[in-house]
């Protein structure tokens, strides 16, 4: 069964896109409505789809419409809100997640090699229940839930002494606060993990809002976590910028109509551009330089 499940992860029949030639009249509401129709209640497009496959379908379905709604070059003079993913975006945790998944999957009897490519393809940006469903099909639901708890505890043990913010984040956060701009963290991570990571880099109180996807109607790549963040901040998509390091995360933000920047801690520039991000950055020094330059013009 495991071999068949893994085959599903790699061999996906993608639906024919209906928005590939979307015109400029496509509205943000249509993007969100279509996103909701394409997913089930857990925010998963289809059982057995990898992170890359899910992201690719969303990108092809909604990228043209999102591009029509969000300008390719963002107006930094009007930004009122930053929406950050956490894992890999605020904190470069992907190497630790890879170790945690590799060791815990091996303990559960999974013999496939969990390397960087497998991690990017099947794990990065996805929720724990979806990963456990696809990679551990022989476990009961109760066993899956226990495996998730054990894996998260193992990850936290690894992360507590090894986490650092992505370069330039502290400087960007200082700029955000000094300019009265709002910010939210929007994540698929469980709340204890999210709070531990923010606390670990000394930024738990720096965010106006923490949105946990599994406490909302759907996980990323569904846009609902980002829509929820904007509702609670009282901001529109045009007033916000999202920062993401994964294809599913970027897909969620783009489908919510938000200008999205890819942070290149885990994915390649090509992969993030294929997902539809407006631009990519190596770290936050690069972004802050751009913002300050644009606001001086």
From TrEMBL:
The keyword Metal-binding appears for this protein: yes
Source domain of life: Eukaryota
Keyword Cytoplasm appears in the UniProt entry: no
Cofactor(s) in the UniProt record: Mg(2+)
InterPro entries (alphabetical): Beta-PGM-like, HAD-like_sf, HAD-SF_hydro_IA, HAD_sf, PGP-like_dom2
Entry keyword set: Carbohydrate metabolism, Hydrolase, Magnesium, Metal-binding
GO molecular function, one term: hydrolase activity
Matches recorded under PANTHER family: 6-PHOSPHOGLUCONATE PHOSPHATASE, HEXITOL PHOSPHATASE B
Protein name in UniProt: Haloacid dehalogenase-like hydrolase
Organism whose genome encodes this protein: Chloropicon primus
Lineage: Eukaryota, Viridiplantae, Chlorophyta, Chloropicophyceae, Chloropicales
């Amino acid at each position: 069964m495991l071999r068949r499940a893994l085959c599903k992860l790699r061999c996906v029949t993608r639906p024919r896109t209906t928005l590939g030639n979307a015109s400029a009249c496509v509205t943000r509401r249509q993007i969100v409505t279509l996103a909701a129709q394409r997913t089930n209640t857990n925010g998963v497009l289809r059982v057995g789809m990898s992170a890359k496959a899910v992201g690719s379908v969303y990108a092809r379905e909604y990228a043209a419409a999102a591009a029509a709604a969000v300008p390719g070059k963002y107006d930094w003079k009007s930004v009122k809100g930053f929406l950050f993913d956490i894992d890999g975006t605020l904190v470069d945790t992907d190497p630790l997640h890879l170790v945690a998944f590799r060791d815990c999957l091996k303990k559960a009897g999974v013999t496939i090699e969990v390397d960087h490519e497998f991690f990017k393809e099947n794990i990065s940006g996805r929720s724990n229940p979806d990963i456990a469903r696809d990679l551990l099909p022989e476990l009961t639901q109760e066993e899956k839930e226990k495996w998730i708890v054990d894996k998260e505890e193992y990850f936290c043990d690894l992360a507590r002494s090894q986490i650092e913010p992505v370069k330039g984040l502290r400087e960007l956060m200082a700029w955000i606060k000094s300019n009265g701009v709002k910010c939210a963290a929007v994540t698929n991570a469980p709340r204890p993990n999210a709070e531990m990571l923010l606390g670990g880099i000394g930024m738990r109180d720096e965010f106006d809002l923490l949105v946990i996807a599994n406490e909302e109607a759907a996980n990323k790549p569904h846009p609902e976590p980002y829509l929820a963040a904007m509702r609670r901040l009282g901001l529109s998509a045009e007033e916000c910028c999202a920062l993401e390091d994964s294809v599913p995360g970027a897909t969620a933000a783009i489908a919510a109509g938000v200008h999205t920047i890819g942070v290149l801690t885990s994915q390649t520039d090509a992969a993030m551009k294929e997902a539809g991000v407006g631009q990519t950055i190596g770290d936050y020094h690069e972004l802050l330089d751009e913002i300050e330059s644009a606001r001086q013009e």
